[in-house]
Structure to design on (430 residues):
């Protein structure tokens, strides 16, 4: 993505641009992003590729995503996102050399940053790895820690990239990949999703952006969106590993040090469109939360609404890092048993969920004070709190044991067998 495209997207979201000039690689981007949530933060760091600009805070609210999707309502944004998964775009391959040029390989020229003092090294946080095995291709985010001029180590969890690596390893082969930086926000959103194996996230992103053009990398034939700023062709080693971490995760906790596979870089390409821009996603802040959480929120809304039509709204809360906590509102016509079923549908749609609060739709799901008020006035602990012990959840939850923990459902709705007036909140008149 180039600067002109970024500024055009910024106009869509209505954000002001805060140009900070050249800043230090360590910590300052975190402070600037945290203090300027409603602004696009643009900056440079010394020593990286020429004509490359970094940015943060392009997506800091659901409204930003809604506007970028061209949706009139949040519910329409959910549907558009999942429709793209079900109807991915057919990709059109164009000539690689028309869009990219090769430069001398040196990972030191990439914008590795250190975000927190707890982090173990400099990192890329918007690095999307694209890999294919036979007819299956996958694009997904993996944080990347720099090791040397031609090596880095990335965090891989047991999902689709892990599956592709296992297939190559069975043949005693390293896994060819493209490390990609500078995708558009909607392509990044697609890469943050977890569609079924065989649904290519780049095709999903093409359905969202309307741009279905890709290039194939010269040596490994990896499909990459033409709007990418930087491509590094290389392999994920089947034998070489290195210690990765510590690193601040989405919960603002420090993830452990692990032995992880090493990425061996072979070729470096840069976009012909300049100035190139690269996303600096601050770990644990709103962009990290929304890129991970918004697709899951969309899935929860569609699934709960299908099972329980009286569901009104769904939110993965910021206090739960848009991952572990959900607030679900239902209409007053919704029976207690149906409202309870909505909680179970939420778990099925997003198994990582930990705590679910069900409220009536007279409670604003975006107002944590109102949600707490509903718990205080409409929930009776002995009757309205349900615990499902020892069930699969999130490995990010520090209170889990290898991802196994408890799920809690809090029913904070008006009792259906009592007068509704008893639980009606008085309104302030202006």
């Amino acid at each position: 993505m180039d600067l002109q495209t970024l500024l055009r997207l910024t106009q869509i979201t209505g954000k002001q641009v805060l140009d900070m000039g050249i800043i230090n690689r360590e910590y300052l981007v975190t402070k600037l992003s945290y203090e300027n949530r409603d602004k696009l933060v643009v900056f440079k760091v010394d020593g990286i590729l020429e004509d490359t600009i970094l940015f943060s805070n392009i997506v800091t609210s659901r409204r930003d995503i809604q506007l970028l999707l061209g949706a009139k309502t949040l519910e329409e944004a959910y549907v558009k996102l999942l429709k793209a998964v079900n109807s991915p775009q057919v990709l059109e391959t164009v000539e690689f050399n028309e869009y990219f040029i090769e430069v001398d390989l040196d990972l030191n020229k990439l914008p590795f940053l250190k975000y927190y003092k707890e982090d173990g090294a400099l990192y890329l946080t918007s690095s999307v790895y694209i890999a294919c095995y036979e007819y299956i291709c996958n694009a997904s985010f993996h944080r990347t820690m720099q090791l040397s001029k031609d090596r880095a180590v990335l965090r891989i969890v047991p999902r689709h990239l892990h599956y592709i690596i296992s297939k190559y390893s069975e043949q005693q082969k390293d896994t060819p990949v493209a490390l990609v930086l500078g995708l558009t926000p909607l392509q990044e959103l697609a890469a943050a999703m977890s569609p079924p194996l065989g649904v290519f996230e780049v095709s999903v992103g093409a359905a969202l952006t309307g741009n279905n053009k890709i290039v194939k990398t010269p040596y490994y034939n990896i499909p990459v969106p033409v709007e990418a700023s930087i491509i590094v062709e290389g392999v994920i080693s089947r034998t070489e590993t290195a210690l990765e971490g510590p690193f601040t995760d989405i919960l603002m906790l420090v993830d452990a040090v692990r032995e992880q596979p090493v990425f061996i870089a072979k070729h470096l390409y840069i976009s012909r469109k300049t100035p190139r821009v690269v996303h600096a996603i601050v770990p644990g802040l709103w962009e990290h939360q929304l890129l991970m959480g918004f697709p899951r929120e969309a899935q929860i809304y569609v699934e709960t609404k299908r099972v329980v039509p009286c569901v009104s709204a769904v939110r993965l809360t910021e206090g739960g890092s848009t991952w572990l906590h959900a607030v679900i509102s239902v209409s007053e016509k919704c029976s207690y048993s149906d409202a309870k079923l909505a909680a179970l549908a939420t778990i099925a749609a997003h198994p990582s969920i930990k705590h679910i609060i069900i409220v009536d739709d007279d409670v604003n799901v975006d107002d944590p004070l109102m949600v707490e008020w509903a718990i205080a006035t409409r929930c009776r602990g002995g009757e309205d709190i349900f615990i499902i012990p020892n069930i699969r959840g999130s490995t990010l939850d520090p209170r889990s044991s290898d991802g196994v923990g408890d799920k809690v459902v809090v029913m904070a709705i008006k009792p259906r067998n009592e007068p509704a007036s008893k639980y009606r909140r008085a309104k302030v008149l202006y």
Q: What stands out?
A: The radius of gyration is 22 Å.
